[in-house]
Structures are given as structure tokens and as C-alpha cells.
Amino acid sequence: MQFRDTQTRYGGLSRAFHWGMALLFAWQFLTVIARVLFEDSALDNLLWGSHKPLGLVLMVLVVLRLFWALANRASRPPSLNLPARLGHLALYLLMVLVPLLALMRQYGSGRSFEPFGLPLMAGFEGDKIEWLMAPGNWLHGNLGWALLALIVGHIALAMVHRRRPQDNVLPRMLGRPVGE
Ligand code: HEM
Ligand code: HEM
User: Where is the Cytochrome b561 bacterial/Ni-hydrogenase domain (predicted)?
Assistant: First the structure.
């Protein structure tokens, strides 16, 4: 299996990042949809506990994925057009910002955060750090929903592009060159 990207297809690691994170994002959005639609239901109680730890995992993964994308930038399949390029950039921006703002808010709240039992934030006594919490309070949820909207658009466009053979980019994210 080709590990690195080439001009005609994404390599194994880029595809693992893409599809693995797509599954994790699906779970992450299930947790918020269950919370919003069925707060305090059995489903919400089951899912919400994974929102913060999974959010942290997604934060770590997107940083690794960004480094990998940069390391491969000279040898990746070229974007179809400028809007596609900007769309992918916006996805990256939101994938970084949404969990980052939440983690800043978590730290500023002074409450401990121990995902998977790891003592990541010990918490502290005294006043909350308001300036660290404010961006998350304003933007975490809103940008999170914006990310979901962008993902829906991204998937829809991937499907629309399948209609024209020269625009069909799905194969290269499945490990096959376009046209095969
Ligand atoms: C990429 C990862 C993440 C996504 C896509 C995401 C998405 C969202 C969304 C859409 C909401 C809004 C729910 C509503 O409207 O009520 C929300 C709420 C929340 N998230 Fe996240 N989240 C992520 C990571 C995190 C992380 C890392 C933490 C904490 C460490 C966190 C903590 C919270 C909390 C406490 C709320 C409820 C308060 C609020 O609405 O801001 N999230 N998240
Ligand atoms: C069923 C779900 C999905 C499908 C069918 C899909 C399809 C695709 C396709 C065909 C490409 C290649 C585009 C090209 O080469 O020009 C691509 C790239 C990309 N997709 Fe998706 N996608 C899905 C889910 C997601 C999700 C959930 C995210 C992020 C939250 C995402 C983020 C990206 C990004 C950033 C790229 C650019 C390549 C990279 O750096 O990984 N996709 N997607």
C-alpha cells in the first residue's frame, strides 16, 4: 500500500486520517444532537460523557493530520478548483478552532479535566479566568454547528462531483486514481 500521497491519489495515512476522523466526527455530532434534542434522556446520558474526551482526541488527530498534509503538500492530488481548496482550508480551520476554544474554556473554568484518567488539567481554586472562557462561551457551540454545516456541504459536493468523470475525486480518497 502506498503510504505517502501522490499527485493522483491520497496515500494510506491521509486516507486513514480522513475516514477515521469522519467516523469520530459522526460520533461527536451524535453526542451534541442527542444533548440538544433529548436532554437528560438515556441516550444523552450514554453519549454526552464521551463529548469532551473524544473532542480532545479529535484535537490531537487534527494537529497530526495538519503536519502530515503540510509534509505532503507538494505531492498531493491537486484541488479541483479554488472553492474546493478554500472549503478544505475552512474545514481545517474549524477542526482546530472548535476543540481549541473548548479546551481553553475548560482550563479557564478551574475545573479539573481528566480524559481517560489522564490528569491533563488539575483544576484550581479561586476565580475563573474569564478571558480564557469567553471565546469558548461565544463560539464553541456556534462554530461547532458551522463545522457540521460545512461537512454536510462537503459530502454533498463530493457526491455531485461524481457525475462528471473528470471531477470525480472520490476514488482518490479511496486509494484509486481518478478515472479508474
Ligand atoms: C472537534 C471537536 C468538537 C466538536 C465538533 C464539538 C461540538 C459541539 C457543539 C456543536 C456544541 C453545541 C451544543 C449546543 O448547541 O448545545 C458543543 C457543546 C459543548 N462542548 Fe463541544 N465539541 C468539540 C469538542 C469539545 C471539547 C474538546 C470540549 C471540552 C473539553 C467540549 C465541551 C463542550 C461543552 C461543555 C459543551 C456545552 C456548552 C456549549 O454549548 O458550549 N467540546 N460542542
Ligand atoms: C461521507 C463522508 C465524506 C466523504 C464522502 C468525503 C469525501 C471526500 C473526498 C472525495 C475528498 C477528496 C477531495 C479532493 O481530492 O479534492 C475529501 C477530502 C477532504 N475531506 Fe472529506 N469526505 C467525508 C467526510 C469528511 C469529514 C467528516 C471531514 C472533516 C470534518 C472531511 C474533511 C476533508 C478534508 C479536510 C479534505 C482534504 C484532504 C485532506 O486534507 O484530508 N471529510 N473528502
Answer: 9-175
Tell me the CA–centroid distance for residue 178 and ligand 1, in Å.
36
Q: Where are the domains of the chain?
A: 12-173
User: Does ligand 2 have an atom closer than 6 angstroms to the CB of 92?
Assistant: yes
59 CA to middle of ligand 1, Å? 12
Check: CB of residue 20 under 8 Å from CB of residue 14: no
**Cα angle, residue 23 at apex, residues 136 and 167 outer, rounded to 5°:** 100
CATH architecture of the domain 12-173 equals Up-down Bundle (1.20)
CA distance 147 to 97: 10
Q: Kindly report, residue by residue over 107-146, the tens digit of the pLDDT.
A: 999 999 999 999 999 999 999 999 999 999 999 999 999 9
Ligand 2 pocket mutation, candidates 7, 13, 18, 70, criterion most atoms within 8 A of CB? 18
- Residue whose Cα lies nearest atom 24 of ligand 2: it is 22
